[in-house]
Design a protein that fits this description.
The protein is an alpha+beta fold. The chain has seven helices and nine strands. Strands 7-8-6-5-4-3-2-1-9 form a nine-stranded mixed β-sheet, sandwiched between helices. The longest helix is centred in the N-terminal third of the chain and has 17 residues, at about 55-70. The two termini are about 30 Å apart.
Length: about 220
């Protein structure tokens, strides 16, 4: 079976409403359609890379290429896990968790997107909470970082609701203009104090060598 060689396909995180897992190629087609249908309003750009500026077909292809690239370029010391987020069996968007030199640094970075029609229903908070469960419980991370532009109010609110604290700013270029990006950081202690969403993780143990670690001790 494919999971014998790529055990990440057996990794699952479940919350009361959502399931996070790697999608099959057929399911990736459905995910690509979610992106094609829109991720944000045309007058906004919550991402540094303007991958949503193209045609619907271009957006769909970029999602497929990005998903395949993360698998192809995976290394134990430099990895990116792009979970597809499912609700009632249908994809809503992506919750990514990534790291470099994780075995030494014990720090992960998260990023995400949701289809426009699925926003405003609390899914963003729930899927981030699921990723944090994997980070802090499954992988024994020490800290988790995130970032959002100053006008990405929903993303910043999710981070603060989950206990992140401000960790400085960066000046970035977006659509040929300077925009301020806020960095946020969450420690294990702060996460424990703000942990509200129940989540379960299955299929993790065979994946641990792919993250560059053995069985975590907490």
């Amino acid at each position: 079976m494919l999971t014998d060689f790529w055990p990440l396909f057996g990794l699952r995180i479940n919350t009361p409403r959502l399931e996070l897992r790697l999608a099959s190629d057929d399911e990736l087609a459905d995910l690509a359609q979610v992106a094609a249908d829109g991720v944000h309003e045309a007058d906004r750009m919550p991402f540094l890379t303007p991958w949503t500026d193209g045609t619907p077909a271009e957006r769909a292809r970029s999602v497929l290429q990005w998903q395949w690239r993360q698998r192809a370029e995976w290394l134990p010391g430099d990895w990116s896990l792009p979970f597809t987020v499912f609700h009632e069996g249908r994809p809503l968007g992506v919750q990514e968790i990534s790291a470099q030199d994780f075995a030494v640094r014990r720090e992960v970075l998260t990023g995400s997107w949701l289809g426009l029609r699925h926003q405003g229903r609390g899914f963003g908070t729930e899927m981030r909470a699921a990723a944090l469960e994997l980070a802090f419980v499954g992988l024994a991370s020490e800290e988790c970082v995130s970032a959002a532009f100053e006008d990405s109010h929903a993303s910043l609110e999710v981070s603060r609701r989950l206990g992140y604290r401000d960790d400085g700013v960066s000046r970035r270029t977006r659509r040929d203009r300077v925009v301020v990006e806020h960095r946020l950081r969450l420690t294990h202690e702060r996460w424990s104090a703000h942990r509200r969403t129940a989540a379960s993780i299955t299929g993790l143990e065979p994946c641990l060598p792919m993250f560059g670690i053995g069985t975590p001790e907490r």
